[in-house]
Structures are given as structure tokens and as C-alpha cells.
């Protein structure tokens, strides 16, 4: 074999070796990415709708990748059975009652299977277990909800626009309140009267509080009337006597009225008989005249000779007594 053929053979061998090394490295890299060479357990989940989930999509638990989707297929009437390859090293941390749902890697990223929840103290996930599932809120559901919210928002803004237009035009109570100055002043006056009534109520409350404090303070009349049984009994007896006196006075007044209305009684005669009234007046006039004459006679008798000396002596004694009283009052 010539040297040229040997060099060609060596070059081809190097190329083939390099290609085999690149192929082996690629296989190892892809296997590492897909965890093809790690030991796994298989779990199953049944979904009503997977939203574009495909074979090879990632499985996440607590924010970490723990496996990939192995297979998808229909089962029953319309459910989708998803086989999950989960790393054997992550399985002990996943509770047996954890749930699975279809999600997305980011807002519009690839579809993933999310395992979440579970109770503490339950056994960990085992090969062949079936995970319960929960429905996913899809993008169409979110859009439908947003559309419904937009419709409600439009209705609310329309109503607010109509209400504001009515207020500006003076419709309704609020509109009239905004437009009518007289109504506003009347409302302000009513509010002021309410404030005054509130102030009066506060003053009355304070007075009642002071009165109740007096009732609870020993030594004063209200406290005695409330707490002292003796005072209460005396007050009750006094009220009973007043009531009895009022009854007697009423009976006396009734008797006087009846006697006054009867001409046969003395009171009735005085009130109803004109002649008896004239006679009584004449009698009183004679008594007045007799009293005046008696006064004149007594004064004349004082100036008569037998009694003049006696009255003068009495007058001097009265003057001396008056002088002594004045001197005693003047002394310090």
C-alpha cells in the first residue's frame, strides 16, 4: 500500500472516529437533558382536557423539573390518560395524595404538568399510582371572563354617564339639590336645626346625668327621697293629709255653694236678699257712727278734771321710758 493510501485511510478513520465521538456526545447530552439514563417511576393522571400537552413535555413539582410526559392516549369516553415518568430521586418528596394539573411554562410558554399539594405524613408516590387531577383555567376561559368583565364595565360606565347627565340637567333629588339654591338653603337650615336639636339633646342628657348623680349622692333630698324609707313614708303621709284636706276643702266649697244658692240659709239670704243686704249696710253704718262718738267721748273724758291728772302722769312715764331707751341705743 502506498503512502498516499495509508494517509487517506488514516484520515477516513479519524473522520469516522470524530463522527462517532460527536454522535456519542450528542446521545449522552440529549439523554441527560431528557433524563433518559436516570431511573424513573411511572404514574398516571386522567384529564378531561390537556390543552395541547405533548409527549416529552416537562413535569414540575415545587418549582423543579422532576420528569417528563411519557405517553398520552384516550381512555373511556373522552378522557385523556397521561403517563408520567418521574425521577426516582424526586418521588420520595411527592405525597401520594398530591394533585396534577396542566399548566404552562410562563404566560405563553410550553405546556407542562404541574404536581402540587399533598398532605404531610402520607406515603410518598409509588410506581403505578394514579394522581388526582384538577381542571386548568384555560386561556379561552380567561378571555371569556375578561369579555364578561368588559361588558359589565361598559354597562356600569353607561349607567354612570346617564346619572351624571341627570345630575347636570337637574333631574332627581340630587340634581335639584345641585341646581336649586333655595332647596340647598332649606336643607342647610334643616341641618342647622338638627344640630341645635342635637345640642339640646346633649344638654338634656348632661342634666339627666347630673340628676342621677344627685340621686346617688348621700345627704341631699333626692337621695333621701329615693333611698330613705322613713322620708318616703313621711312624704306619703303628708300627701295623704294634703289629699284629705283638699277633699274637705272641696266639700266645704260645695256646701257654701249650695247654701249660697238657698235663700233660706244665712249665707243665701246675704247673697240673694237685697233688703237684708241694705239692713246689714245700715247696721254697719250705725256701728261706725257709734264708734266715732265713743272715740270723741273718751277723748273728752281724758280732759275732764277727775282723770286729767292720771293721764298726764302716764304721759310723763312714757316720755321717761322713751328717753331711757334712746340712751341705751346710743351707748357703744
Percent helix, as a range, is 55-70%
- How would you classify the helix and strand content by structural class? alpha/beta
Helices, by number, come to 9
The outline comes out as: rod-shaped
Task: Encode the helix/strand succession as letters.
Answer: HEEEEEEEHHHHHHHH
Query: What low-confidence regions span 5 or more consecutive residues with pLDDT below 50?
Result: none
Strand content: 5-15%
Give the overall pLDDT as a whole number: 78
The end-to-end distance, rounded to whole angstroms, is 174 Å
The number of strands is 7
Taking Cα atoms only, what radius of gyration do you get, to the nearest Å?
62 Å
**Could you describe the largest sheet, including whether it forms a barrel?**
7 strands, mixed
Spatial ordering of strands, largest sheet: 5-6-2-3-4-1-7
Key descriptive features of the protein:
14% strand, 7 strands, 63% helix, rod-shaped, seven-stranded mixed beta sheet, 332 residues, 9 helices
Explain this structure to me?
The chain is built from 9 helices and 7 strands; from the N terminus they run αβββββββαααααααα. The radius of gyration is 62 Å and the shape is rod-shaped. It has helices at 3-33, 139-169, 172-179, 181-216, 221-227, 229-261, 266-272, 274-302, 305-330; strands at residues 40-47, 58-61, 64-75, 79-87, 99-104, 111-116, 130-131. The model has no long low-confidence stretch (mean pLDDT 78). α2 (139-169) packs across α3 (172-179) and α6 (229-261) packs across α7. A hairpin with a 2-residue loop joins β2 and β3. Helices cover 63% and strands 14% of the residues. The chain has a 7-stranded mixed sheet, with no helix packed on it.
